[in-house]
Design a protein that fits this description.
Blueprint lengths: L2 E11 L13 E6 L5 E6 L1 E4 L20 E10 L3 E9 L8 E9 L5 E8 L2 E7 L12 E10 L15 E9 L3 E6 L1 E2 L10 E7 L9 E11 L5 E10 L3
Parallel strand pairs: 1-8
Antiparallel strand pairs: 1-5, 2-3, 2-6, 4-5, 6-7, 9-10, 10-14, 11-12, 11-15, 13-14, 15-16
Length: about 240
């Protein structure tokens, strides 16, 4: 039957907080490295950590506090030491931006491990406007490109420590091989209802002189200079003939 051994796994966003229920948490998979046997699987559950998490200094010899942090707990029945691979995929509520990370470590029967901490890099980028496959009834003179950008924990970009000046948000508009335009998005300080994390730009749509609709691909990418965190989202728009 083996000896019950508890494994606690937590997932934190790079330069952010824990992936909690508010962003869907992360899917955790635990496998034996040598046999590939699936030992446990499930999602983290709980909060994103204490409110002051980003203000707590931690040295290399200290462990980041896990108070109020989401966790996945598995109990493995071990009859011998095993080298396990722990994989995290998330955030589950933002599949377009989800990343996967993993680590391996030996575990010993009866020695509980509560220090599995995986760091998810990246940014959550969601294009809010235009919606993908957008087909206006007539050729527009311009289209607003609007995106929501957050940390992987869902933490908003607005105030310290995640201020808008730390992020570069850019739109790339392409059509075929001969049209490509790249321009920055501006942080919207006057977003409707004071919603944070909104970036936008007005794209002057080229006049369609053909008799057929023209398809454009819009890519919005966000980049956090200090950490290298990057996120991407894409949509397509269909512009009718003028």
């Amino acid at each position: 039957m083996g000896i019950p051994t508890q494994i606690d796994v937590r997932v934190v966003a790079r330069f952010g907080k824990y992936l909690g229920d508010d962003i869907g948490g992360a899917l955790i998979t635990i496998r034996d490295v040598h046999t590939r046997e699936l030992l446990a699987q499930g999602a983290t559950s709980g909060g994103s950590g204490v409110k002051t998490l980003m203000d707590i200094p931690v040295t290399r010899a200290q462990v980041l506090t896990t108070d109020e942090a989401s966790v996945f707990t598995a109990t493995l029945n071990l009859d011998q030491p095993r080298l396990i691979k722990v994989t995290a995929h998330g955030p589950l509520a933002a599949q377009q931006s989800a990343n996967t990370v993993s680590l391996t470590q030996w575990v010993y029967p009866g020695r509980n491990v509560n220090g599995f901490l995986l760091e998810i890099p990246g940014l959550v980028v969601q294009i809010l406007n235009p919606p993908t496959h957008f087909l206006p009834t007539s050729a527009p003179a311009e289209i607003e490109i609007r995106a929501n950008v957050t940390m992987m924990c869902g933490c908003p970009i607005e105030n310290a420590p995640w201020t808008p000046d730390l992020f570069e948000v850019t739109a790339l508009v392409k059509r075929g091989e001969f049209y490509s335009l790249e321009f920055p998005l501006t942080f919207d300080q006057k977003a409707p209802d004071g919603i944070p994390s909104q970036f936008f730009v007005k794209w002057p749509v080229p006049r369609n002189e053909t008799q057929q609709p023209e398809i454009y691909e819009i890519t919005v990418f966000a980049f956090q200079q200090e950490t290298g965190n990057t996120g991407v989202d894409k949509v397509t728009v269909i512009i009718p003939a003028a």
